[in-house]
Amino acid sequence: MAAEQDSGLPVPGGPRHVAIIMDGNGRWAEQRRLPRVAGHRAGVDAVRRVVRAAPEIGIDTLTLYAFSSENWRRPADEVSDLMSLLRHHLVSELDELNSNGARIHLIGDWRRLRPEIVERLEHAVAVTRANSRLQLAVALNYGARDELVRAARHLAAEARAGRLDPAAIDEALLDGALDTAALPPVDLIIRTSGEQRMSNFLLWQAAYAELLFVPTLWPDFDAARLREAAQAFARRERRYGGR
Ligand code: FPP
Questions:
Q1: Considering only CA atoms, which residue is closest to atom 3 of ligand 1?
Q2: Mean pLDDT for the chain?
Q3: For domain 17-143+184-234, is the CATH number 3.40.1180.10?
């Protein structure tokens, strides 16, 4: 299948929206006797490769789990390293994102990050707003249960204000109150590094998504691995609860 993998053409029947749990940065660094931050830096390189490759493969929306609401429990110096990487790359990658036609979306409770980072995030969203080749959703301070709680609070406030009849709340309305409201349905969720857990990622959106667990550590993930994942998706038959 090497010719197919190297084709550079969209994968027929491939996923439109791929979401990725980027796991294994720490183990990648440990294997090389490097500090964990070196793994996260290499993880940023993998993000760049995947953002470049996704549109060529036919993926028009990519959601990346960059920082979970549980990641605050990591040692303070690691959290600080991740925030520094984020702060730096939000500026240094903007030209690259624009040249790839990537439009940034944010999901999660990202407004609770440091003000200086929130400002840079808002800037990145604003300057990429006109791009349409790839919708790139970055999950920051994201937890799926927290997302559902925030959506429930929002709908409850609307009901209390008299703008919403509780009986009118259905799946579509709740779906539209989630952080992912502007994005198409998630087709495929990939987790790298061999772990087989959802880790509080897109729990509602995963209802009909295909799941793919691959052994590759995130810093080793590349265009060829992404293409293989899209091909694996295309081989699966989706029934949405039907026969
Ligand atoms: C999981 O690896 C990865 C993360 C917690 C962060 C993912 C972040 C990036 C790829 C960099 C871009 C994002 C930011 C915020 C700059 P792990 O550390 O859990 O790996 P391990 O399970 O092997 O220890």
A1: 23
A2: 95
A3: yes
